[in-house]
Amino acid sequence: MISIDLNLLKLIPILAEERSVTRAAERLFISQSAFSHALNRLRDELADPLFVRTSRGMEPTLRTRQLIPLIERSLANLERGLKAGNGFDPATSARTFYIGAVDYFEFLGLPRLVSRFKTMAPNVRLSVDILAEKIQHEGVESGQLDAFVGIDGLQYVPHYFNKRVWLQDRFVAITARQRQDLPEQLTLKQFLAEPQIHLPAVGSGADLIERWLSSRHLSRTLATVVQSYAVGGRVVAASGYLMCVPYLIAQELVQMLPLRILELPDGAPDMTLSILSHALYDHQADIRWLIEEISQCLQ
Predict the structure, then answer these.
(1) Domain that includes residue 59, residue range
(2) What is the CATH number of the domain that holds 56?
(3) Is residue 1 domain-resident?
(4) What is the CB neighbour count within 10 angstroms for residue 66?
(5) d(C-alpha 209, C-alpha 173), whole Å
(6) Is residue 65 a contact partner of residue 35, using CB atoms and an 8 Å limit?
(7) If 136 and its partner were Cys, which of 58, 100, 126, 251 is the partner (CB 3.0–4.6 Å)?
(8) Residues 115 and 207 reside in one and the same domain
(9) What is the pTM of this model?
(10) Which has the closest alpha carbon to 147: 295, 296, 287?
């Protein structure tokens, strides 16, 4: 069995970020020689060079790249356990929070959340994963993810998860600004006649617009499938196709690109997003703080 000082493991993700022994040592408030000595101990104990000097700086080996997420999550879980009963001070904490999310949160919520953290929690870091729903749930239950922001009605929520509504939004369509031939509100016939760009709402492919049309035995023509709102907006601006997006997302996109917003036909669905956390962890002060910050970031 390998026995390694946990303090030594902290060196690996920091050196991977800095790519410089000097800068990594400064971040840990130790001398360069002390850092180099500790790194050499790790190399001996793990029987791997861990980092190799290149023109780009200290480059992590394949094994190191595989270890980094495991080390970061393990240290975060250990910190969480040790501090569970001692409260949480965002102003001084260097905690890394891991959030699972759908694209909606990453595009709209993450920039505002980071802006809030810059002032009140300058040393706190955020890592957002856009993963399949099953992996998200497993991550929250195992403690690898601190919370998950998902879409109601499209994703199964185990009964032992705690659920808090984050926000509600309605769907609209965006199209190129030069498409002045389309009215402010589309009829169902006009909507179905237009080729469309599609962003799947969740990894399984389930989608509220598709479900709405299917319930009426209708279908639309999907010209292209994209993986992000930003890319979808650019494709729409270039092609003049339609794309169904939540209204708050549409407001952001029309400020970035030459687009206009169209109302969908009557009866189009709304979207509700919720914050999911696990009862095992969300009594802890740091998790409660994170959930409150996510809840408030769009207000």
Answers:
(1) 6-83
(2) 1.10.10.10
(3) no
(4) 10
(5) 11
(6) no
(7) 100
(8) no
(9) 0.68
(10) 287
